[in-house]
Amino acid sequence: MSELMEYQCPCCSAKLEFNTGTQNMKCPYCDSEFDIDAVVQHNNEMASETEEMKWDTIAGEQWNEAELSGMSVYSCKSCGAEIMTDATTGASKCPYCDSPIVMSGSFAGDLKPDCVIPFKLDKEAAKAALNRYLDGKILLPKVFREENHIDEIKGVYVPVWLFDAEADAKMTFKAEKKRTWSDNSYNYVETSTYSAYRSGKVAFELVPVDGSEKMDDDLMESIEPYNFKEAVDFNTAYLSGYLADRYDVSAEQSIGRANERIRKSTEVAFEETVTGYSSVLIEKSNIKLNNGKAKYALYPVWLLNTTWNGEKYTFAMNGQTGKFVGNLPVDKVKAATWFGAITVVGTALVYALSYFLGL
Fold it and tell me: 118-122 long-range contacts, Cβ below 8 Å, gap at least 24?
């Protein structure tokens, strides 16, 4: 026996029932009535979640022999990173984990990037940004302010897959309006619930997903956005003096994160159109992706890794815009002293207020 399909009310999401008198679908809760064909069409449209699309992930091209002859490849035995640079730029430590790196093999199988955003800010700008970021952090351990750590900032081109796509979306939202009032006896809250429906298309261009397993996705996304208008066709000359990570996450392997970023951005864009309510929640979301394409680029990042009490801390700066992010440790001795001082001051204030108020 086949399973019966349930049809939900587009207004309040309750289960619809067939009304023999009107020959329509009727909601027993809000009394709304709908034509059967319209209800079936709406139910089918909202039945599925985001469709996974087959992307056109043909990006980059093969290196030629002349380009490879002027390149060096280094390998990190600790985290597995493979770093490439021009033959004149030496490399001794991994930009991701600070472990020693050694010269390794060739570029067999690699793709050459389609484009690159050149570094616009130099190492001195990265040092200044780090100092500004640390400034005023009174609970920061002293080791983070030592100059030798600042000198270990490294400029790295991070491999990035850039995705273009069109999102065709249909969504329903549960929206509420609340009205409050009081009288001499009670406080009242009246809640009105609505169902909002939105449909439309959103075009996305250059949605980035980093192609390095060592580069934390959240960290890389935190220093966005990059201005792609300043991107240029790739040339090995841009690697001079810098390191470049070899991608170890392919375009095909990056599709899941690209779909997720596009899906979330589409839902946010549609939700922002549902205005005038106290709260808005997505009930159903159907997103179809079309015309997906990908290209391969290198994005400039300044990286600093340091360790405190056995914990690794990473800082990153957008090498084009200067946006700076990172996690910070707390000196437990300083924290205990600082919070102890706050407690003493707070207690003193309470006693002072009690004295002056005669409590």
Answer: 118/230, 118/232, 118/238, 118/300, 119/155, 119/238, 119/242, 119/300, 119/319, 119/320, 120/230, 120/300, 120/319, 120/320, 120/321, 121/302, 121/317, 121/319, 121/320, 121/322
Give the span between the Cα atoms of 94 and 137, in whole angstroms. 28
The residues pairing with 115 across neighbouring beta strands, listed in sequence order, are 233, 297
Q: What is the C-alpha end-to-end distance of the chain, expressed in Å?
A: 77
* 236-240 LR contacts (CB < 8 Å, sep 24+): 236/67, 236/70, 236/71, 236/86, 237/86, 238/116, 238/118, 238/119, 238/157, 238/298, 239/71, 239/84, 239/85, 239/86, 239/89, 239/157, 240/86, 240/88, 240/89
CA distance 40 to 37: 5
Of 63-72, 92-101, 219-228, the one with minimum mean pLDDT is 63-72
Look-up of token digits 């069409």: 41
pLDDT band, residue 80 (cuts 50/70/90): confident
Go through the chain and tell me how many residues it has: 359
Q: What is the pLDDT of residue 107?
A: 46
Q: How confident is the model at residue 347 (pLDDT cuts 50, 70, 90)?
A: low
Can you tell me whether residue 117 is helix, strand or coil? coil
The pLDDT of residue 15 is above 80: no
For residue 317, give the amino acid letter: M
225 upstream amide cis, omega within 30 of 0: yes
pLDDT recorded at residue 82: 79
pLDDT at residue 3 tops 70: no
Other CB atoms within a 10 A radius of the CB of residue 13 amount to: 17
| pLDDT tens by residue, 296-332 | 999 999 998 877 777 778 899 999 999 999 888 765 5
pTM: 0.72
Whether 251 and 57 have beta carbons less than 8 Å apart is answered as: yes
- Distance between CA atoms of 193 and 261, rounded to whole angstroms? 30
